[in-house]
Amino acid sequence: MSSLHPRAGRRCHNAVNPLHSTVYFSPDYAKELAGIGVEDTSAAYFAGRAAALGAVGPGTVTATFYNFSHELIARHLPAVWDTASPATVLAARMRAVDATLRRLLGDAITSPEMAEAARLALRATEACSRPARPLYAAHADLPVPEEPHLAFWHAATLLREHRGDGHLTALLSAGLDPLEALVSHTATGKGMSPRWILASRGWRRTDWEAASDRLRERGLLDADGELTEAGTALRADVEEHTDRLDLAPYEHLGAPGVERLTELGRGFLMAAAAAGAFPDDLTGRG
């Protein structure tokens, strides 16, 4: 039996994953991608996150990213690879990560704590598994950067995509399609705001309302857009299913290591957030 608290892995993920995500909100990322000819923000995101998979088309990205409109993805892929190869995109992304973390964290990138966080996160990734986890598996084939802050970001990426690939299995098992997953997550108060979802995921307001209606028909959402008791239970089941599928790296790291990585990750995350890493209206129901 595991000595980990049932939600210890989730808490660790919630501390480490957002620091990975800072790059996609960073002006440094937009600058680096524009420098290789990818100026559209959606194209830049799809290219940066999908480049580890190779020069894939829209079908692969729709399948692996899950909650974006296929129509939006198809506007940019595979055309973006005519502008910049996956290898060129990956190099630009890493330059952006370096610039972003230096700007947000300052001297902390060379601290003993950053080196410790990188060691712990990389140790956790030793127990991640490739089968049925395409985004994780693709990133796991990339080399580990030498500098601790970049190694930590790389490890955070592996942990993020490992959990994310498993999360899609949980969503499918719960019968939540891409937009239903977004609507129900937003209704928990922890997901992205509808404004950000509609602006970044390629969905229309009518799509959002149709998904909400489907959730109401299943008794998961009430007339005011709040989760019902059944909806709350379903979202809890999804997260617990994801926890079970994502347990291996945290069991491998062990309870003390998970606790320490969570502590370090939260410290870096709080510093990054205080430095303006995320938009003020990114989350919420508005």
TrEMBL record:
InterPro entries: HTH_67. It comes from the Bacteria. Pfam families: HTH_67. This is SalK.
